[in-house]
UniProtKB/TrEMBL annotation:
GO terms for biological process: lipopolysaccharide transport. It is a multi-pass membrane protein. The keyword Transferase does not apply. This is Lipopolysaccharide export LptBFGC system permease protein LptF. One of its GO terms (cellular component) is ATP-binding cassette (ABC) transporter complex. It is found in: Cell membrane. InterPro entries: LptG/LptF_permease (IPR005495). Keywords: Cell membrane, Membrane, Transmembrane, Transmembrane helix. It comes from Shimia isoporae. The chain crosses the membrane at residues 20-40, 61-84, 104-130, 311-336, 342-362. The keyword Transmembrane helix applies. It holds the Pfam family LptF_LptG.
Amino acid sequence: MSVFRPFLRQPVLRILGWPILWRLLLIVGVVEAIFLAEEFTGLMQLALRNDGPLSVIGKMLIFRIPEIFDLALAFGLLIAVYFAVGEARDNGELVVLATAGIPWWRVVTLVSAIGLGGGVLGLLNAGYLLPLSNFAERVTVAELRKDYVLNKIQTPGDKVAIQTIKDTTFIASPPDEAGQGKNGNLFVYQRNVGGVWRAASSRNWQVSGQDNDRHIILLEELVAHDVALNSTVEPPPMNRYAVKAADFNFSMSEVAPDVDRTPLQAEKLLTFHRDETPRIANIAARALMVPLAGLLALAALVAGRTTLRRIVALPLAAVVMLSVDVVAKAIVVSWASLLPPGLVAANALFFYLAPPLIYLGLRKEALMKPAGRTE
């Protein structure tokens, strides 16, 4: 820790670095909180429809965090740098730094370093955390729905339940006040069983599980009615018979599809292979939007020397950031399959970072002087 202590106490880091970082953390936290609050209603409805516990909602909210992390990071850095550096400039702290011999490019270097660090976080998020979260969310939802169907079949309820298994429809009624049975009555309908349609009812029934997949519906006091489908007699005769017990075998995979644990294309972790070049370019281009946001914030401060310009500078910087991201990302991704990876990376850095750096180099004096002073 003593090795880094001189660096942590540097004037530029103390005056600008820490204010930028705590503002950035605060803004990213607020943006994520707003996003999760909007997602909460839909996730709660999903959990309620499938009788899921509250812990499922919490897990799903955690899985949604990486979804907008890179965008929240870019906008957070844009706002944090604009207000932190703007406040230091208006208070004359940047003039003090310049008087102490600290040049303007140290400010730009600090903001660029924070932006590149955020870009690395965005790259790790989009390449690894987001695919893992998408996979975990899909599996969690599939397991939730499968458990709901199994509980609906196995657990007696106070409402009429309908379930179709292998072209056989089961309609279960709740037990009556007389204690008719564990699960009440069960109506069974089969459209075509050996050329006849069959309707049956059981006065008591239960589901017995042989393993995690195979189950048996045990039917007691069963009364069945059969009618031939191709009977020439009108009305067709109906056969009625009663049996003490019967059973119906089924697999849970026939009721609810098995949870597919094979990662989809969007759920695969980022690998640095030639075949992955377009995906790498797409993710890296989005990650470069974070350092671009920091440099555009400095450019907005330089351009906003009057009251009117300061009002429109930050929104305009946000529009420019999104526009550059769309255009530059399309160009970089289109070049990913044509050029070597090193050249693609160099072009991406140029398209994203060179224009604001050139502008800041041309207006470097305006960066350090308060807005009320002449340039």
